[in-house]
Amino acid sequence: MTEVLEAGLRIVLVLGAFLVLPLLVGQTEHKAMAHMQSRLGPMYAGGFHGWAQLVADGVKFAQKEDVVPAAADRTVFKLAPAVALIPYLVVLVAIPVAPGWVGHDLDAGLFFVLAVMGVGVLGSLMAGWASANKFSLLGGLRTAAQLLAYELPFLLAAASVAMAAGTLSLPGIVAEWEPWWLLWQLPGAVVFFVAGLAELQRPPFDMPVADSEIIFGAYTEYTGLRFALFLLAEYAGIVVLSALTVVLFLGGWRGPFDDALWGAVGVVWTLVKTMVLAFVVIWLRVAYPRMREDQLQRLAWQGLVPVALAQLALTGVVAVVVS
Amino acid sequence: MKMPGAGLAKGLAVTLRTMGRRSVTAQYPDVKPELPPRSRGVIALLEENCTVCMLCARECPDWCIYIDSHKETIPAPPGGRERQRNVLDRFDIDFSLCMYCGICIEACPFDALFWSPEFEYSELDIRDLTHGKERLGQWMQTVPPPPAHDHHGVRPKELDAAAAALAPPAEGRPARRERAAPTAEPADVEPPVLDEPAAPPEPVAEEAPTGRRELGSVVYRPDEPDPDLGNGDR
Fold first, then answer.
1. Do B15 and A40 touch (CB under 8 A)?
2. CB contact under 8 A, A35 and B23
3. pTM of structure
4. Of B8, B11, B25, which is closest to A39 when you measure between CB atoms?
5. d(Cα A262, Cα A272) in Å, to the nearest integer?
6. Three-class DSSP category at B45
7. What is the pLDDT of residue B172?
8. DSSP string for A254-310
9. How many CA atoms lie within 13 A of B188 on its CB side?
């Protein structure tokens, strides 16, 4: 009975984080981006500095008509937002925030997480294919090209950490983590973060949804709640990517006083690091212009893949020497 | 040699620095703008000062001022005679035509027109932008007092004129009305004693510098009628 209760509690907590954190990141994006552009951002919704803007947006999206184009593949079209969103919820289950504070501790957690994150991109491909719209199709193709190019350095960088820690379990990786890994795994961390950004199609890697060229890429035909789900998937993706980078490369819950208060301070460490990385994601969006399609490919194949391979070699050598 | 990635760091630095600064957004309906002095919002009418001389309507480049009036006869006081005066019936300004040049305000010799900084009088119909004297009169309450003179600026000549008119005539000066035409007198002759008026007509914050009079091209002579004196010094 207690096991069932505990599992239920864990799932409720993960679901709560899944519903709250992306909205928090979205609101941060509204305000941080505005101030970086010398604006104020939302100021009315909710009264105090527009804190309820995303709630209001959600209400608006829920009221809109749910249009499916006549020529669209109805089933695939309707399924795509769920395919885009749900993997991030599933990934969140496996991410530890403190010792024992994890939705479900998997032995091959890293493998599971990376595999499921790859599924999320399928939502965009399905949307692009099923919309019966040439802009959607172009966006879907670009998404596919980007996925192919960036999945490889993403996995290689993650494999480097797994090699260094000697385990695929995410809590195990954090437990093995040492502060000097910050330097040792730095190229891998950068590669992982950048490749993750590209998989999320966040600026400056937002060629698949380049609104000035192909309207909104694969999401062109979507309205109302389904469109909102795609947007939510983007912000959930930011949370998941940031949390994963923190767990793999920045030591997760490790930090001063991380054992105090039965691990609660460790939770705070994880959340603080995650939010800082999410801020960096927003910051990069404001600072850099969109990369062209050929620049994207060149960065992946000529930049990130060699760096990731070099990191992998370095990790192997150092791991052997240290042991 | 340039550091690789220096441009990327610079881009990040620019956005972060901008985030630290105050944003430039004006919260207009919630926070009223701070208008500069002498803002040209709307033209206010002080009806009591208007003599229906029609100068403003004639000077208006847009012909957007409409004035109607009639004459009223004031009954004769004992031992006097009847007088007539103009009574303003209508004073409309069509703000859909007005180009806010301010010529009417400059032209008014009786200080009946003023700039008000009030600017929130938009209408849904362009015909409603013609405002009558009642509305123009209400705007009088929003006319700010004239801003103080610039501390280092030239002292308004009306103040000197008023001071000089009240000062006792200097010794050795010819009596009034016996002077030659003003052009006959060289400009560098010392003007009448002005620095110590016997009774200052109104408090003046700053003292006029003593050497200033020689610099000005206009030298006031108390025995000439000053055209500005009748106007007050608004």
1. no
2. yes
3. 0.72
4. B25
5. 18
6. strand
7. 58
8. -STTTTTGGGHHHHHHHHHHHHHHHHHHHHHHHHSPPPPHHHHHHIIIIIIHHHHHH
9. 0
